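So, read this over?
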Amino acid sequence: MSLPQNILEASERLLEYHRSSKLDERTPAPAPDVRTKPAMSWLFDFADKTPLASSLIDLPTGVLPLLTHGLEALPQSMHSPPQDLRTLSTWLHMAAGNRQRVATPWGQAHTRGVASVDLAYCDEIYVAAFAIDGLEPGFYHYSPREHALRKLRDVAEALSMLRRGRPDLQFLATIPCALLVSTVFSRSSWLHGRRGYRKSVIEAGQMVANLHAVAMALGMSTHVRLRMTDSCMRELIGLPEDYDYASAEAVQSMLAWTDGAHKPLEVPPRPPPGALYTIPRPVSGKVPVPFGSIIAAHRDACAVGVAIREIHPPMTDLTPVPSSVNMQRLAVASEDVANRSLRSVLLQSQVITEFKPRPLSRNAMARIVQCAFRGGTFFPLKPEGAHVALVRPFWVMQDIVGFEPGIWWYDPVIDHWVLLNRGQYRTETGVFTRQKELLAGASAVCVMVANLRVLLGEAGPDLYRLSLLEAGVAAQRLSLAACSVGMASLTFADFADDLWRGFLGLGSTGWEPLAVCAIGGAPDIPGKTVEPMSGGSSLEFRD
């Protein structure tokens, strides 16, 4: 069934935005102006403050089994953790809290649980607390800088907006809490220009993956949604309809802790009458350069009339590689791959300025890739199997023991590999990603692509945003898995799009690169040793 004309026009505008935001190897690197630097985090200091717990829960489960098996990787005794402020504090701090304070060209910043090239985090997190011991029900903003929550609304207002027009979300009143992940567009555009929308949505996907991983490690059952009603979320977080660019913010996802509340709300809250009051953003006083194309792109993706509907096959089974290609399952040794706990990985957070030469075993590489692309996806994406729905990975293998150097294709739907072209491509990957020095020591480079022409033309404009979100989710899973075996990973959103398309043979197709991820040896940490990696040392296939 064809889409309505106005929806097709929105899809075409998004495709044009994507084309217009492309870069090449000659495009100058961004030079942010400190005179237009936006506020790099919100601090609602006028709102009541609730300090979070300083004593946190350990996360001892290994990353690889956690991302592979989910809650099944935990003993039953760790399921359904206490529904209290300590558990919530652990969830927030381990996934999104500040770590090491570092200097950047534009000022002081902190590392966080998500590795970032520029440390300009575009995301904010809000907490809708319904039944958390030690926390008054209400709608809060999470402040990593203070390790605290700031209350912005009462619980009735939060429930009303979250459930408005969504009968499938009536369960929210019976659970402990839900988190919202938003993006602030001016932070990303200050560093990435027109490409800021792409970067900020990918980063939101990375944060969603981190929050989901920590929730699993805590033993929580969760429901993750990559699409909410945009107008209701704008009103809930306090933006007026005519917001200015410095305040521009959009909710990208919700993670609901779905274990039944031990002490549910005693009286069902009444929805408030009329519109909610606005909440002023604590902007920096400097006026960021506005990018109307970014606001227009988001509004086209989430426009009124763009229904929230599930995405099923065949949209979730697309592939850029012909079915005639002879693909095979990679043979790996039966022994486990040694890997660190999620706690160790998340607290390690380093600034990666180079990749150290460090070969990776075939077994470890196979597990990393499976964790990233065979760990399922989130509503409204509904593939038939436990794999990503929209993005597909090409790999440029450079120093992986048991993988011949060259361009590889991995099909996450069937968990098969094929070598497309032999050769060393360190120079090309550096030029195409606009990171010659940084990628010189990378062991492998992943290019995530999506068929935007088909997805937007047949399933609607929000598939653009959903593709970027899923690329971020896969990128963060990749990073967590790589770090757990002693490697490092970085995700790049600024690269030469059409050079990558031509290199991968996609120039005449609708497939577009969305993110580039590099894996390499992590810098040595004083006083710590890297755990050994297990696995075979030669390339084999099995039927």
